[in-house]
Amino acid sequence: MVTKSILPFLSILFCFIACSEATNADRFQLTASDVQVQQEDTAGLPSGVFAGGCFWCTEAYFERLQGVKAVISGYSGGSQKEPTYKQVSAGKTDHAEAVQVYYDPQQITYQELVEVFFATHDPTTLNRQGPDYGKQYRSIVFYKNAKEKKLVEDYIGHLNEAGTYKNKIVTYVQPFKEFWPAEEYHQDYYRRNPQDPYVMSVAKPKVRKFEDNYRDKLKPEYIK
Known about the structure:
Layout: H1 7-13, H2 25-28, E1 47-52, H3 55-63, E2 68-76, H4 85-89, E3 96-103, H5 110-119, E4 128-129, E5 132-133, E6 139-143, H6 146-162, E7 172-175, E8 179-181, H7 189-192, H8 197-213
Parallel strand pairs: 6-7
Antiparallel strand pairs: 1-3, 1-6, 2-3, 2-8, 4-5
Helix pairs in contact: 1-8, 3-8, 5-6
């Protein structure tokens, strides 16, 4: 267990290490009775799949948006079947940490999801997001049809032409094949682990900034 007396020190330390290294043995021992993943009925809803670094942060952004009904953390982009967090975080698969976002198109569009995705991570860094580095943290949009593919490519072109970022976007745009949900203890990780040093030092500042910038798109419970 991490004591309160050393949390400030660890918060600084965890700014320089990867998401994969921020999980200790205690959290690996969580069971289904310890953690209840709350999923709304997603039958018939479309979904988008995105990879933009550590899925703890990416999940927290999307689940705050009006019209988003469920966000599942998991793995996608590789060929390995039933990958585990231990394998993916160590770079032993071709998968990236990703999220599957179920949404109501009457409340939020796929275009808006794409815009939020690009605004909440650095799409110009290859195989890296902040302290998290490796191919498992690469930036990807997984499209499910030709319309989505064109929308994403057009938006990337727009961002590059507008000079939104100092460097050129290196986000992969590739067809969706399969999504593997992550272990249960990763679901809704940000909310359920507020004292995790990585969450406190890396994720929380990003999520707070997101809430300030997207106040008009937040669900009521996230408006402060």
